[in-house]
Amino acid sequence: MNTAQEKRSQMLSLVEKWRGSGQTQQEFCSFHGIKLHTLSYWIGVSKEEKSPSGFIEVLPKNNAIQKIEVIYPNGVKVNAGVDLALVSKLIHLY
User: Fold this and answer.
1) Do residues 7 and 44 share a domain?
2) The pLDDT of residue 94
3) CA gyration radius for the chain?
4) Are residues 45 and 73 in the same domain?
5) H/E element holding 68?
6) Residues 16, 42: one domain?
């Protein structure tokens, strides 16, 4: 493993330790001697890894789709009604 991969692995491991610690980010950083913005950055990176495309699957309740809203990772929202072809085009635009 190269140095960048080792650092990434260490930081993601710290994120998991923070999540299980019950401490605030500030408390955790003070205890481990790291900067708060560094931990915050790696928390964001770990979230991206769990959803690499930026999209998450949402299933309708009772198989009744009333409207579909696509929310891009940058916050832009597009209402697509129930037109699945339009939803597909919107996803592929990203």
Assistant:
1) yes
2) 55
3) 19
4) no
5) strand 68-71
6) yes
Q: Which tokens belong to 23?
A: 């401490």
Range of the domain at 77: 61-93
82 inside domain: yes
Handedness of CA 72, 74, 75, 77 (dihedral sign): negative
79 backbone dihedrals φ, ψ, rounded to 5° = -85, 125
Top pLDDT among 10 and 81 is at: 10
Q: In this structure, are 40 and 79 located in the same domain?
A: no
Contact status, residue 80 vs residue 87, Cβ threshold 8 Å: yes
Report d(CA 84, CA 78) in Å as an integer.
Answer: 13
Name the pTM for this structure. 0.48
Tokens 């597009």 locate to 78
Question: Of 13, 12, 40, which Cα lies nearest the Cα of 26?
Answer: 40
Number of domains in the chain: 2
Strand, coil or helix: what is 61?
A: helix
Q: Which residues pair with 69 in a beta bridge?
A: 79
